[in-house]
Specification:
289 residues; 6 helices; 11% helix
Length: 289
């Protein structure tokens, strides 16, 4: 069975929650985002952007953005997402395409696309409750494992990571390559992630009959954990936040600190830097048995 994913605003009219990653961000309702032009349907594509006009108070609410969550929650599946554009490589930004379940981290989180500031490659991460320790599955992976195989590292906040070795998988280089496709296979035995630039997308994906057996070595190949115990009922999410627990915490250690003393000051003072901080989604499809 295949379904094209439909999304609802996570923050509905009159309902406001704080960004769970403590970002310098103001997630808008659907009507407000549409009025501001940062959420819209363009033909068959979905545009998910951020405000790139307002100079802000660094101690204020934060930059307007959008967070979308799928209407349906999934357990297992082959998730294929085609992007014409993703947020560019911008100081202060923290875009992500990810999945998470209820009662975090007990139902797990799968970060498929995630990066901060000028990070050159994608970081793929699993976050779980205690007890999920992964290894590299059969056939290997092309990405580089992170510092721990404990997906509950940092109480689940750090998780277990694989860092891609493909320079065109995120940010401005991805956009310069005309976008591409990410595929995530989630089964009882493991979680795998592949990526292709547009010119290299497998024919079975473009024909609508994807077969992971034909795709070669994935970028990430998580195995060795009881995945059915730690991952279930996960919604698919798009968001772009700013600063916060990751982009803000590493600000002083990177070149972005040359532009402003703090992440919040930079994001507040330079709205024009975020004109390319948008997702342009061709589709998200979930294939299930």
């Amino acid at each position: 069975m295949v379904s094209t994913v439909t999304f609802a605003k996570l923050l509905q009219e009159g309902y406001v929650i704080a960004d769970p990653t403590h970002g310098f961000v103001n997630y808008l309702s659907q009507s407000a985002a549409q009025s501001e032009g940062i959420y819209k349907i363009q033909g068959n594509q979905v545009y998910i952007g951020v405000d790139s006009n307002k100079v802000l108070n660094p101690s204020g609410v934060g930059r307007d953005s959008v967070r979308l969550q799928s209407n349906k929650a999934y357990t297992h599946g082959l998730i294929i997402a085609d992007f014409a554009h993703m947020p560019g490589s911008d100081c202060g930004s923290w875009p992500a395409f990810w999945m998470y379940g209820p009662n975090w981290p007990n139902s797990g989180e799968i970060d498929i696309i995630e990066g901060v500031n000028l990070q050159p490659t994608d970081q793929i991460t699993l976050h779980t409750a205690a007890g999920c320790n992964v290894n590299v599955g059969p056939g290997g992976q092309t990405g580089n494992p992170g510092p721990t195989n404990d997906c509950n590292a940092g109480g689940g906040n750090n998780g277990c990571t694989v860092v891609s070795n493909v320079g065109t998988g995120i940010g401005t280089p991805f956009n310069n390559a005309n976008g591409g496709v990410y595929a995530t296979e989630w089964t009882s035995s493991g979680i795998k992630v592949w990526f292709w630039v547009r010119s290299q997308i497998p024919g079975d994906i473009t024909s609508g009959n994807p077969n992971p057996a034909n795709w070669g070595t994935p970028q990430a190949n998580f195995a060795g954990c009881n995945f059915d115990q730690y991952f279930a009922n996960e919604n698919i999410v798009f968001d772009t936040t700013f600063c916060g627990d990751w982009a803000g915490s590493v600000w002083s250690s990177g070149s972005c600190a040359n532009a402003a003393p703090t992440c919040q000051q930079y994001v507040a003072q330079y709205p024009g830097q975020y004109k390319d901080a948008y997702w342009l989604v061709n589709y998200v499809k979930v294939f299930q048995q």
